[in-house]
Amino acid sequence: MPNHASDTYYIDIDQLQVGLYIHLDLGWMDHPFSVSNFKVTDDAQIETIKSLGLKQLRYDPRRSSSMPLRTAPLQNVVEFPLKKAPEPKVEIIDAIPELSQAQKKQLALRQAIAESEQKFMKTSTEVRNIQKLSTEQPEQAYGMASKLVGDLVTSTLTESDIAIHAMNGHRVSDQHYQHELNTLVVAMLLAKNLDITEEDLVILGMSAILHDIGKRQISDKILLKKDPLSVRETAIYQTHVLLGMNMLRDVAVPRKILTLISQHHEFADGTGYPKGLHCDQIDPLSHILIIANMYDNLCNPSNPAHTKTPYEALSVMFAQQRHQFDQTILRRFIKCLGIYPPGSVIRLSDQKLATVLSTNPQQPLRPFIQMLSDDREEEGDIIDLREALDINIIQCLKPEQLPNLLQNRLRLKQRTSYFLDKIYATS
């Protein structure tokens, strides 16, 4: 993954101060922060970082708003050049002489994906805790959501090349799937491609993570019902919008967030609920939330039998439902997810099968893919199609078009989760 190595240096831990943009070279489970690279904003963060036992930190002057502290009293200071920071994991991989260059590249990619999955699982746990607290302690839940969204917004805005990564590895099970997290991730990627302000991105993120909070007061018999809802059940289900707003009115929630939550089931053609608003009556940020919410509902419905592949979901939204959405935002959404959205199962020009891991926004026809292996114990190679120019995608497949062995394996994972990640570097 690009790490702007030319702009990154080591500093001693005692040089840390507010305003520095740092990288924590630790596993995601080895520190309490939601992200591993961020700008330090207060003294409490500094104390936490110092408690991690690191002697040095990677520091990026290009993204910092202050300089490192000097390590001696001013009158005794001797200026010295900061040391360039290598990529630690690449060094470790390069130190294994028996690995070929191709093997080193695979190992580096797998490490990057494993880090992304660990980050996702940690965030998923935080979202689940927010949902659990929302009914009895909505104020505490809102505070936790604010921190989570703030960290994700900072990470999203400070990384130039961000894409959605599909969590399809062995380590990520369906229990980590959170509709609110998927909606948050998809909405933030779309918003980044629309160049909205940081303030609006935070509002959108908070609305995404809280938009279904009212469902905590709806019976699971309705929420999890696989057969179509009756008229009465549909009416009860639709009250989750009002219930959610009522839960949050006693908390200091900005009015704009309440507006987005109230509109996340409205449609541009006036067929949505609860008010049947038309396109120009819907807040511009709500249009983003509406699209993200619909996309995940199509990919991950309560009844797995109705699941659409990511490719099918985009096709349905454009071919059958486009009158329900803001047309400009829908087109941008399709563009930023790519021709072959993450999570898609594809056939290649050599007739081999693979899944799409992550898009390459600048080259949507050349995503990152992982080969599907017949060996249950072995993960297929990860390929950056920007480099494998002799391979092309020729078809997006439905699960029933796969060999029985692969169908059974994919059935074990009925839901597709997403997370924002930097584009993997393979050179």
Describe the structure.
The chain is α+β, with helices and mostly antiparallel strands and 427 residues long. It has two domains: 5-90, no CATH class; 101-422, Hypothetical protein af1432 (Orthogonal Bundle), CATH 1.10.3210.10. The protein is built from 14 helices and twelve strands. It has a five-stranded antiparallel beta sheet. Strand 7 and strand 8 form a beta hairpin.
Summarize the structure.
The protein has 427 residues and is an alpha+beta fold. The chain has helices at 43-50, 88-94, 101-136, 138-158, 179-193, 198-210, 220-223, 231-238, 240-249, 255-262, 284-299, 310-319, 327-337, 404-411, and strands at residues 9-12, 21-23, 37-39, 56-59, 83-84, 162-167, 345-348, 353-358, 368-371, 382-384, 393-397, 417-422. 41% of the residues lie in helices and 12% in strands.
Topology:
Elements lengths: L8 E4 L8 E3 L13 E3 L3 H8 L5 E4 L23 E2 L3 H7 L6 H36 L1 H21 L3 E6 L11 H15 L4 H13 L9 H4 L7 H8 L1 H10 L5 H8 L21 H16 L10 H10 L7 H11 L7 E4 L4 E6 L9 E4 L10 E3 L8 E5 L6 H8 L5 E6 L5
Helix pairs in contact: 2-3, 3-4, 4-6, 5-6, 5-11, 6-10, 6-11, 11-12
CATH level-two architecture of the largest domain? Orthogonal Bundle
* N/C terminus separation: 9 Å
Quick one: overall form?
Answer: globular
Reading the helices and strands in chain order gives EEEHEEHHHEHHHHHHHHHEEEEEHE
Category by helix and strand content: alpha+beta
CATH fold name of the largest domain, please? Hypothetical protein af1432
Largest sheet: 5 strands, antiparallel
The amount of helix comes to 40-55%
Give the name of the CATH superfamily of the largest domain. Hypothetical protein af1432
Strand order of the largest sheet: 3-2-4-1-5
Q: Briefly, what CATH class of the largest domain?
A: Mainly Alpha
Rg over C-alpha atoms, rounded to the nearest angstrom: 23 Å
Q: Poorly predicted ranges (pLDDT <50, ≥5 residues)? A: 1-7, 72-95
Strand content: 5-15%
